[in-house]
Each structure stands twice: as structure tokens, then as C-alpha cells.
Design goal:
By secondary structure, the protein is α+β, with helices and mostly antiparallel strands. 34% of the residues lie in helices and 15% in strands. The chain is built from ten helices and ten strands. The strands form three sheets. It has a four-stranded mixed sheet with strand order 4-3-5-10.
């Protein structure tokens, strides 16, 4: 199957035979129930359409509830999917999964979670991207005008480490301790390294603050920082180093905002700017201290979290 048939994303796909789609649907009570209208062309989001996308993406059987929950969350007004889908900019809808469902689907919060490997992060994230693109009628150069786009438009699925010292992002955003998904548009990914010339916690907080400020400084309009959700992926070793001096999530996000806003003031001399509407730390990754910054979309978008 190919893009000539309006199916797929340019990469090889699994043929969505009736048997495969039926297996993905499982006991879904009404496969053709309309769950919402997806921008930019406001096509119908249905379980059958999402199941077809899951098969196309090679996602495991059982992934449908995650993909449907994430797709429905992406339709919330605060995420601004119409803007994300039609901008000339680069945003992609990132998926953050929390809870036992991650293990059941073969998702990983460990080494290489955003890259290739013996896990299902790539296929589940791709299933969400295909669901939104297919239902929404996304066609480069016609309904979506991204000047360059970015690889995360194929797939971007993170999984939260349940042992993180601050609890999961989903729980902190009110979804409880069970299975939940968070969706958030991100402008890309950037590696962040600790500072060798500073002691903890500033060895970690200062470069993270610089990264947050850098996204705002590159946004054209400096006031856009206050409209973004910015995600920071902190490996377990980093979380362990920060937790003694920053034991609560409020402590952590306040310290990150303080360092980010200070970096922004140092560059601009302005007191009215801020690095984010929300700073969203996610504990994930394998051994090591190299962190990851997923800058928010400068067009303005908020994360959305829903329990499953």
C-alpha cells in the first residue's frame, strides 16, 4: 500500500486486512462510533479508523485504547491541533504514556526509548500520527504546509519511569496513578549536558534553564514563551541527583523556571518574559546523564492529559 492510495506516511506499512483490523478492534462495542472531528479537514475519528492506523504502523494488538485516548486528547482546544497541523512550522504531537499499560504493550522507558530497538514505542507513536493524519486529511503541500517538518511527525512516543522521585507527569496533572496518556506538540529535540564547572543541583539546572530560554529566544516573538509547554526528559541518574535538594515536583519546576527565566532576563534585560506556560519534566531513559529538551511549539499549545 502507498501514499498514492492515501494510506501511510511514506514508510512501509502493514496491510490492514479485515482480519488484522478486527483483531486490533477486539471487543470494541461500536467500531464506527464518531469520537470527534480531526483537523485540518475535520474528518471523523472512529475506533475502526484508529485500529486501521495501528495495523498500518505495526503496533501491537492492545495498542488501540492508548491510541484512541491520545487522539481524543489531541482534539482538546488547548492543544490547538488545527494550528499544529497547518502551520509552516515544525510541531509534532508527542505522546507520553504512563502506567502498567506500557509493560503490557512492550513499551520502554529505558535505553533508547525514542530510537530504534526491541520495543514498541516507535510503532505506537506512529499509530497516533497516522490516526490524526488520516482522519484529518493531512497532505504535505496541500493541507499541511510545514516548511521542513521534522522526524517526530513520523513518531514520538515517550514512556514515564514509574520509579521517578516526583511521580509521573500524568499523575501530577491529575490523571491518577493508573494508565494515562499525555499529548503535547513539540518543536524538536535537543540534547542537554550537565555543566562540569558547577556543583549540583546547578550543574543540571543551569543548562536545562538555558535550553528552556533558548527555545524562547529562537521564537521570533519573545512573548510566545508564556504560551508553550516545554518538556524535559531527565534520565534516572539525573533525577537521583536532583531529588535530594528538590524533593517535590513543585520544587523542581520552580527551580527550572527560575533558571530559565534568569537566562532569558540575562539575554534580553526584560522582566516581563517567561520560558513556558508549563514545564513538564519526564523521568525516562537509560544509564547516563545526557538529558533531552523537547521545546514547545511557538504557535502556542498546551499539553493535555487523560486517564485511560
Amino acid at each position: 500500500m502507498s501514499d498514492e492510495e492515501d494510506v501511510g506516511d511514506g514508510l512501509p506499512v502493514v496491510a490492514p486486512t479485515p482480519a488484522r483490523v478486527a483483531a486490533m478492534l477486539g471487543s470494541t462495542p461500536d467500531p464506527d462510533d464518531v469520537l470527534g472531528l480531526v483537523p485540518p479537514l475535520f474528518g471523523e475519528l472512529t475506533p475502526r479508523g484508529a485500529a486501521t492506523a495501528c495495523v498500518l504502523a505495526g503496533a501491537p494488538v492492545g495498542a488501540l485504547p492508548v491510541v484512541v485516548a491520545a487522539a481524543r486528547a489531541a482534539l482538546a482546544s488547548e492543544l490547538n491541533l488545527l494550528g499544529v497541523a497547518t502551520t509552516t512550522g515544525t510541531p509534532a504531537v508527542a505522546l507520553v504514556v504512563a502506567g502498567p499499560v506500557a509493560d503490557r504493550l512492550g513499551l520502554t522507558h529505558g535505553t533508547g526509548l525514542l530510537g530504534p530497538g526491541p520495543h514498541t514505542n516507535g510503532s505506537v507513536g506512529r499509530a497516533l500520527a497516522l490516526t490524526l493524519a488520516t482522519a484529518g486529511g493531512v497532505r504535505p503541500g496541500e493541507t499541511t504546509m510545514a516548511t521542513t517538518a521534522q522526524p517526530a511527525r513520523y513518531t514520538c512516543c515517550l514512556v514515564e519511569d514509574p520509579a521517578g522521585p516526583w511521580g509521573t507527569l500524568a499523575a501530577r496533572r491529575g490523571a491518577g496513578a493508573g494508565d494515562a496518556v499525555t499529548v503535547v506538540p513539540v518543536g524538536g529535540t535537543a540534547e542537554v549536558l550537565p555543566r562540569d564547572d558547577l556543583a549540583d543541583p546547578d550543574a543540571l539546572l543551569v543548562p536545562l534553564g538555558d535550553a528552556l530560554a533558548g527555545a524562547v529566544l529562537a521564537a521570533g516573538d519573545l512573548t510566545r514563551g508564556r504560551t508553550m509547554t516545554q518538556v524535559l526528559v531527565l534520565p534516572p541518574e539525573v533525577a537521583t541527583r536532583l531529588a535530594p535538594s528538590l524533593p517535590t515536583d513543585d520544587d523542581l519546576t520552580a527551580a527550572l523556571r527560575d533558571r530559565g527565566d534568569a537566562a532569558l532576563r540575562a539575554r534580553t534585560g526584560r522582566e516581563d518574559l517567561g520560558v513556558a506556560a508549563e514545564i513538564a519534566p519526564v523521568v525516562a531513559g537509560g544509564p547516563g546523564v545526557k538529558m533531552l529538551h523537547l521545546p514547545g511549539w511557538i504557535g502556542g499549545s498546551q499539553a493535555v492529559t487523560v486517564p485511560m
